Amino acid sequence: MTTDAERDQPPRWYSTNLVGVPAPVLSSVAFNTHPVPLAIAGTRESYVGLFSLLERSQDLIEARDIFTHFLAITFGLRKPQAHELADLGAAEQRRWQSSWRKLLQGWGMDANGHAGAVLKAWVESRFGLVPIFHKAPLARFPSASWVGYLQEKAASRYNNNNIFQQLDLLFEFAQWALHRFRPMACHGDAKHVRLWRGSNQVEEQLVAGRLQDRRCTIRLNNLVSFSLSQEAASCFGDWVMEVSVPTCKMLVFPELLPGQVLQGEQEVLALGGDYEVLARYV
Fold first, then answer.
1. Which among 119, 61, 108, 71 is positioned nearest to 258, based on CA atoms?
2. Is the dihedral of CA 59, 65, 71, 73 positive or negative?
3. Would you call 217 helix, strand, or coil by DSSP?
4. Model's pTM, two decimal places?
5. Which of 160, 181, 202 is the last residue of a domain?
6. What is the mean pLDDT of the chain?
7. Biggest alpha carbon–alpha carbon distance for the chain
8. Residue 38 needs a FRET pair 20 to 30 A away by CA distance; which of 29, 127, 162, 173 works?
9. Based on the domain organization, do 56 and 173 belong to the same domain?
C-alpha cells in the first residue's frame, strides 16, 4: 500500500522521459555513482549538419562560435533592425527575446522566477525529473505552490520560440564538448567533476545520514547550480557540500558559452536528484 509520505515524493509521479533511463534511476545515488551517457532522443539526428560542423572545430572557442551562430540563424535570435520591423508581425518582432541565453540569464538572476520555471519544466519533460521546489516546496498536489509553478512554466514570456528544442541542443552541445575537449577537471574515471554547493536549508534536503557525521545524502531540485570552489559556494550558505557530479548531468559549465550567461563565473548548471555529499559548516 502506498503511504502518504510516498505519494508526496515527486519522483514517484512521473517516470517517462526522452533519455532512456527511468526517472527514479536517474535521480538515484546509484546512478550518480555509476553514470551512463545521456542523450535526448532525436536531437543529434535532427541536427546532423550542426554536429558535423562542430566536429571540424579545433578548440572549444571555435565550437561555441559555431554553435551560437547556428542557433541564432535557426531560431531567429538576432534582434531585428529598425528598418526590418515594418515587415514583421508582432510575434516575429519579439521572437528573438525568447532564447536559451535570456533563459539562463533569468536563472542567474532568480532560479525561482519565470525563467527558472521554464528550465525546470524542460528537465521534467526531457528527463522525467519533477521539481521539488519553486518559491516553496512542491509536495502535495494541488497546492498554491504547484499552481504558481504551472502558471509560470507555461507563460509565454520565455516559453515560446521552440525554447525546449533550443535547450535540447544546448544539452547535447555541452555533452559533445565535454567528451571532445574535456574542459573540466574530471575525477580519475573522467565521468565525474568535484563541485560544491552552499545552502542554509540542508536539514530540509537531508534524506539519509546526519550532518554531524559530515557524510550524508541530500535531495536536490531537478535542476541546480553548483560552484567550482568551496570558497564560491560558501557565499550561498553556512553549509557547504562537496559533491561528485556526473558529467552526463551537466547542462552549462564555465567556458562552454561566450559572453555573460550565468551570474557567477564559477557556476555549473546540472541535473539534480539524490547525491551523497561531504558537508562542512563554514
1. 61
2. negative
3. strand
4. 0.89
5. 181
6. 86
7. 65
8. 162
9. yes
Residues in the chain: 282
- pLDDT over 90 percentage in the chain: 64
- Say which residues have a Cβ less than 8 Å from residue 240's Cβ, sequence separation at least 6: 196, 197, 198, 230, 233, 234, 279, 280, 281, 282
Domain count, the chain: 2
The pLDDT value given to residue 188: 55
Query: How high is the pLDDT of residue 46?
Result: 96
Predicted local confidence at residue 1, as pLDDT:
45
- Answer whether residue 212 is part of any domain: yes
Task: Tell me: do 237 and 168 sit in the same domain.
Answer: no
Of 140, 160, 181, which marks where a domain is finished?
Answer: 181
Q: Check whether 93 has a pLDDT greater than 70.
A: no
Other residues' Cβ atoms within 10 Å of the Cβ of residue 120: 27
Per-residue pLDDT, averaged over 201-212, amounts to 81
Residues 6+ apart with CB under 8 A from 8: 139, 140
What's the average model confidence in pLDDT over 193-217? 86
Give the range of the structural domain holding residue 37, as residue numbers without chain letter: 4-181
**106 plus 199 within the same structural domain:** no
Query: In the prediction, which pLDDT does 194 show?
Result: 94
Integer Cα distance of 204 and 81 in angstroms: 49
Cα gap 252→261, rounded to integer Å? 9
Q: Does residue 186 belong to any structural domain of this protein?
A: no
Is 13 inside any structural domain?
Answer: yes
Task: Let me know: does 128 contact 15? Beta carbons within 8 Å.
Answer: yes
For residue 225, the cross-strand partners are 269
Q: Are residues 57 and 79 in the same domain?
A: yes
Map grid coordinates 546526519 to a residue.
Answer: 210
Angle (deg, nearest 10), helices 60-74 and 163-181:
170
Q: Are residues 201 and 105 in the same domain?
A: no
Strand segments (E) across the chain: 133-134, 136-137, 192-199, 206-209, 215-227, 239-246, 250-252, 267-281
Most confident of 49-63, 90-104, 208-222: 49-63
